[in-house]
Amino acid sequence: MRPDAERYPEVAACGGDLTAALRAAAGRMGVRLVGLGEAYPPKGLSRHFVAALEAECGDVQVSLRPERREVGVTLRLPLVGDAAVGAVGSLEVVIEVAQAWQAGMPLADMAARWEFLMVSPKALAHDEGTGAAYEWESVRRLPDRLVDQTLVEAAFRSPQLSSLFPMVSHGSLQFRRLTVSAPGSDVPSVFPFGEGRWRVICLWDRDIPVRTADTVEEAVRLVVEGLPEGCGPALEVIHDARRAMETKSRGGDRTEDETPVRNPNA
Questions:
Q1: What is the mean pLDDT of residues 223-229?
Q2: Which of 232, 199, 231, 235 has the alpha carbon at shortest distance from 215?
Q3: Is 221 exposed, middle or buried (0-12, 13-18, 19+ CB in 10 A)?
Q4: Angle subtended at Cα 28 by Cα 26 and Cα 34, rounded to the nearest 5 degrees
């Protein structure tokens, strides 16, 4: 199945292929779209209804609604997820959005310019350089069945730990130097040990002995004592990468053959 020719004449003119239609429209606009190609379509649709673009720090997906004229756009950030979603009637507007995203335009500026975009608060925080603070707010709101809030609050009161990026997993409270939850960290983590006790473990260095604490305060103290030299504050990876994209775009030195920077590791 291909897009309806009456609803999407510019797509029909390109053989019913959205990717080709986007490329043609971008050419008429004098816009270069980097990494434009086919995408996996939603269930029930053919590939002709979906296209994707790879950005240096986040992708763009463009889709067509088969039952009415509506061009959807989804902006994504690595290890964060959907940054913004929206729909409009114009391929050209979607191309402008995609170009701005690839150029590193701040997400708040994009939302102000294209009001049909619905922006994720989490993605906005990462884009603005407040990803660690946002994650702490989220962790502090979690129910006790997921993480002991007395432990969370004790860690949050520590300037050294509250400057890092928190992560909750299987009841443990973990910390990252980077504001992404990718695997890998040389910072000790705190795990429940039963009967109100805690274990402080360095997950990625088994040579460091496991230590036991009788209180959350003691557990926090042991984590702070085990911090590597120069640890913190957490590096705002998404913010730094996207502002670098913005600077590079303004310099006009980006080439179509550049390999996108994807999924920074913690």
A1: 92
A2: 199
A3: middle
A4: 25
3-class secondary structure, 199:
strand
Name residue 51's beta-bridge partners: 38, 62
**154: burial class by Cβ within 10 Å (0-12, 13-18, 19+)?**
buried
Per-residue pLDDT at 164 exceeds 60:
yes
Nearest to 193 by CA among 221, 212, 178: 212
pLDDT score for 254: 41
**Does residue 114 surpass a pLDDT of 80?**
yes
Do the beta carbons of residue 131 and residue 83 sit within 8 Å? no
Cβ atoms within 10 Å of 49's Cβ, excluding its own: 24
Structure tokens that stand for 171 in this block? 């009841």
**pLDDT tens column, 81-93:** 999 999 999 999 9
